[in-house]
């Protein structure tokens, strides 16, 4: 029985089954699961997904890497659950390259499969966060990156997530980075495609149909927050502060993030030293002749600080809404967690009960197997005895046949001897009778002679003597 058939037919949970057959590589388990997934019940599939979550990282990565694309078309829901659940699961560069090479090495079909059907908002954002992050890896070809962007835009549009304000912003941030990294011809063509096929996504990004988007439309969008950190306003006392002092977290991440103007105009990502609002040194005292330029520089810094404060206020407002929404979600998740804990407890009790039943059945089965083995041993012993008896019976029959032939020969010889002896004895008996009758009749008068009384008496005596002789020879003579 192969591993796939064992996973299908075994009554044990997959986790316990995997512990019982230790030493099987994770890749072999992934191939067995993918081969038997279509024949598994929904409960067995859920058990497999839960087991994958409990594995060590290396084994978990190996199974996710090969199982997820294999079942993404047939069972996209389970495939989405197999995706890394937490962002930190993709912190390892080796893991990202491995997933990117397997899932996005040649095409973006896996992403299309995962976005099929009716998905909740968090499911869409989870899928897009993972795949947009993987699309930034080196093993992904440029053509596949464009396909990932197209699939992401279609997914956002079809699931109506363009109006979402909180959960989708990190997705748009990475989307903008990938779009800004496309070569100019391909990037221009892709922006035209966005404006035609997914106008709501293009509107959210501030794009218009044509090789270049309007800068006014780009600047009209609310600024997107950097994914790595949250802007923080530092209270100031005294003179003007530099950009680094006002928003250190935004300043630290801004060089790697393209602006709306960059994406809308089709320009490449600007180098860090060309980004507006880079950290400047504190103004130093200027000579009197340079007072006017110093005042202008100070005014510019005040304006920059005011702009940054305005952006920070907008970010804080958005963050407040996000925190409120997260609080509501957390409360809902807490209730859901309590429900799941109750169900898990009931399921655990049921599992313990089933495990006890399984133990009893195993014991009964072992006893039955032992009895069957004993009966088979007895049957084998009886078969050996029957075979021995058959051999002995054959030998006895052969001996009886030989004795029968010998006795038959002796009987024929005896019959022949008895026949000769009887004839001789009969002849002797006849001779003896004749002799004795002759002796008795000797002196008896002849029949033609004249009879008298004395002769009649003599004849009578002779007759009785003859009767007496025959009686001695066991020949009965009746005289009455």
Write the layout of secondary structure elements.
Layout: H1 3-9, H2 14-20, H3 26-36, H4 42-53, H5 57-71, H6 76-82, H7 93-103, H8 109-114, H9 121-135, H10 142-158, H11 169-180, H12 184-197, H13 199-205, H14 215-220, H15 243-246, H16 248-253, H17 260-265, H18 291-441, H19 453-472
Helix pairs in contact: 1-3, 3-5, 5-6, 5-7, 7-9, 9-10, 9-11, 10-12, 12-13, 18-19
Structure notes:
It is built from 19 helices and no strands. Helix 3 (26-36) runs parallel beside helix 5 and helix 18 (291-441) packs antiparallel against helix 19 (453-472). The chain has 480 residues and is mainly α.
Report the major sheet: none
Low-confidence stretches: 210-289
Mean pLDDT: 76
Helix content: 55-70%
% residues in beta strands: under 5%
Number of helices, where a helix is a run of at least 4 consecutive DSSP H or I residues: 19
What are the key terms here?
480 residues; mainly alpha; rod-shaped
Give a quick precis of the structure.
This protein is mostly helical and 480 residues long. The protein contains 19 helices and no strands.
